[in-house]
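Our consortium's second objective concerns turning raw sequence data into structural hypotheses that experimental partners can test. To show how far this objective has progressed, the report includes one record in full. It was chosen at random from the queue rather than selected for favorable results. The single chain below, 202 residues long, was entered without modification.
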Amino acid sequence: MIKLPRAAEREYLAIYGIVAVYVASLPQGASLVGFSRDLLHSLLTLRRRWPGLHIASAFWVKNRGEARLIATEVNRSLMHVAEQKLLMADAKAAQRHVENVAAHMGIQLTEHATVLMRARSAVAFIDAKIAQAQANGELAWFNSAYRAWRLEAQRQGRGMSYAEARARLRQNIFRQILTNDSQIDPASIFPPLQGIDSSVSG
C-alpha cells in the first residue's frame, strides 16, 4: 500500500497536470489497473464497489493520453475475472506488466514516491513563501479583499472560510509558478459577487 497525496499535495498535482497509472489490489489477490489525476478520489470511488481494495503501486506520466494507452494495453493483454473489471494477476504481476508496457511504448514512468516527494517540497516552498509574505505585510491586499468578500458574501447567503481562501491563494501561486504568470488573479481566489469588485491584485 502506498501513501497517497493529500490536501495541498493533491492541489499541486492537479495543477501540474500529470496523471498516475495505478495498480489496485483486493485481499483475495485480484488486481485492477487504471489511471487517475487524483488517487485518493479514485480510491474512495473504487471502494464503493470493492470495500477491501487498496492502491498497491502507482507510476506517473506526463498526460492523460499516455496513461490511457498504458492502462488500456495492460487491461487488454491480461486475463480478467469473469464478467468483472478485475484482473486475475496479483498486484506485483500487474505492476511488472505496467512497467513492461510503458517500456515497450517508450513512455517514461516516474515512481510515485518521487512525485510525492516533489509535491511535498513544492507545497512546503509555497507555504513558506506565503508565510513570509504575511510577515512582510505583502498579503495586506489579500486580507482586505477577503474581509470585503466575506461581508458581501454573508449578505448574499454565501461563505468561505479564511483557510479555504488561503488554500485558493496557494493554488493560484502554484499555477503562477508553473505557467510563469506574473500576476495573481484575485477572481480565481474570490468568486465574483454582485456588488463587490474582486479585481484588486497583489
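The partners drew two points from this record. The first strand starts at residue 19 and ends at 25. The beta strands are 19-25, 31-36, 54-61, 110-111. Both points have been shared with the crystallography group to help prioritize constructs.
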